Structures are given as structure tokens and as C-alpha cells.
Amino acid sequence: MATTATTADGAxxxxxxxxxxxxxxDVEGQTAKAVDGVDFFIHENEVxxxxxxxxxxxxxTALSVMRLxxxxxxxxxGGEVLFRGKNLLDLTYDEMRKIRGNDISMIFQExxxxxxxxxxIGFQLTEALQHHQVMSRQDARERAVEMLxxxxxxDASRRLGNYPHEFSGxxxxxxxxxxxxxxxxxxxxxxxxxxxxxxxxQAQILELMLDLRQQTGxxxxxxxxxxxxxxxxxxxxxxxxxxxxxxxxxxxxxxxTNPEHPYTRGLLASLPRxxxxxxxxxxxxxxxxxSILDFPKGCKFWTRCPVKEDVxxxxxxxxxxxxxxxxxxxxxxxxxxxxxxxxPAGEPExxxx
Length: 353
Hints:
- This protein has helices at 58-65, 93-99, 111-114, 121-132, 137-150, 156-159, 169-181, 199-216, 228-234, 252-257, 262-269, 310-314, and strands at 14-27, 30-43, 47-51, 74-83, 86-87, 104-107, 187-191, 220-224, 237-242, 245-251, 319-323, 326-329.
- The chain is an alpha/beta fold.
- The protein has an 8-stranded mixed β-sheet with strand order 6-7-8-3-9-10-12-11, sandwiched between helices.
- It is globular and about 65 Å long.
- The protein starts with 13 loop residues before the first strand and ends in a 24-residue tail after the last strand.
């Protein structure tokens, strides 16, 4: 079993800390604020979940951490991304290349666009291994075969010579997962990692990712998903994102049993509940996520909120501490008795140590 990394005073060490991250895009002469002041942190040896509907800013947040925002039309407008205390936004291109894959890996949402169509699967797997670690071509090939076998690709040795278009969608996803896990990174960012896979393979892949923490002792996972059942089973803390901002964050059990934000309640209410024997129709959140170019003034969720008040339409709420480790961005939620005047950036999203 991996041990929990702590500082000298007993607090858990932070592997990644994001402070005031802002990532914008130029869309037909307008500025789209895809990520607009996001703060969170991830402890060493922690599985951290990030949930929300499509268009909430989850994938852009992950790509910003990796410094993979296409420029143009996008750019990181401000903030800090601290990995083990080092601000990744200050690194040169070559310095960042040494971090990607070796220290931080990402499983992308769409493997067909992430894999290079003109190189074989085997070449793309072994290239990363040889680039970051000192190993022979033969050793890299053996490691590649091992990883493909672990993610459930049959006849892995022969399939190394195949190209991405010769794999099915699910097999491409598994190849991408194998590539991300092959170097046992300290932080694995998994963006909808099991979307194209059947239920049996999903469980196998999730188990593989969790085993990563056992191999290094301090590895963490940032899991981006729509599947709240997966979050409940695998994550320690979870942040709910909407409108480019974190709306609520808490330990998983606390969030599922005592959600404070109306949006979080809507997401949880949309899940099928076996204990509701008379339930004939799932609840839904009315409307859709607003256009990135037309987010409402005030609270980003008020246009779909069933309990909104007049203040919600004009004033954007701050993220306030509800209780220890639980923070929420809503005018209708009462802050703790002694809220901080201004919590340090990155602190509200995960609570205090």
C-alpha cells in the first residue's frame, strides 16, 4: 500500500496547485473565457475528481496545466500552475517537454486526434519511453508490449506494427492509456478515460490507474468525467465546475450526502437511484450550458437555477467555506461562522489542510 505523503507538521503535501488560472480564446473577434479564475490543488497520492457538463471548462483546465492550449486562438491569460512548487507557466518549451509524459501524463478525450496517424502504435509508445528514460529499443518494445497487454489489447506484440486507423475506437483509447501509464508519471490527468470502452474494460483501466499510485507512492490522478458513479468509487475529493469556475468542492462522501450548490444537487438528482422504487423518470436540469461567448452576468448558473433570487442575476457569488473542507459558490449558502477574509489562492477549492 502506498503511504500518504505529509509535511513536517503532519499536513499532506501538495503535488499540484493551480492559482487564479485564466484561459481565454479569440472567437471571431470576441474573447471567450473558457477558464476564468480557477483555483484548486491536488495532494500527493490522491485521486481528485473534476465533474460538470460539457462546456464547463474541465478539459481546457487540464490542457492549460499541460501547456497544450493552441495559440492562436487560445492563450493562458494569467495565474499559476505549481507542480511541486515550480510554476509550469514560467518554463520554456523544452523544459515543459521534459515534464510532459515523464512527470505529468494525460489521457486525452479523443484518441484519434491525439495519436499521430502516420506512425505506428509501437513507434509512438517506444518513442516516449526512449525519450524520457535511458533504455534500448528492445527494452522499450518489451515495455510497450507489456502495457498494451495490460490494457487488454490482444496479440499485443503483433499489434505494435498497426497504425491508429487499424484500431477500433476502444482500442485506440486503450493504446492512449497505455502510453500515458508507461512512464508511471507522478500526475496522471485522465480526461474521460473510459468513454469508448465497455464496462468490463472500464473497470480494468480504472484499476490500472489506481495501481499507478502504488508503484510510486506519491502519484496522483486528476479524473475528469461525467460519470458520478466512477467518482464515488475512485475519488477522495471532487470539484464541480460550471461556467469556467469551480462551483463546489468537498470530500466525495460529503458532496454526495450533503450537496450545497443547486447545480451539484441537479447533477446528483439526475442519477438513477435503485432505492427509489416508484421513480419512473429521472430528474433533469432545465436548459443547456450557455454559450461560452454569452455567459450570464452574476451567477453563471442562475438561468437554469430553480431557486434563484434577484441578487443572483446581478452579483457573482464568492466561493465561501461552508464547513471544514467544503466550499461552495452560491448566494443561498451560508458561510461558516468565521470565514477567512481572503483565503490564499488555491486554498478554497480544497479546503484547509
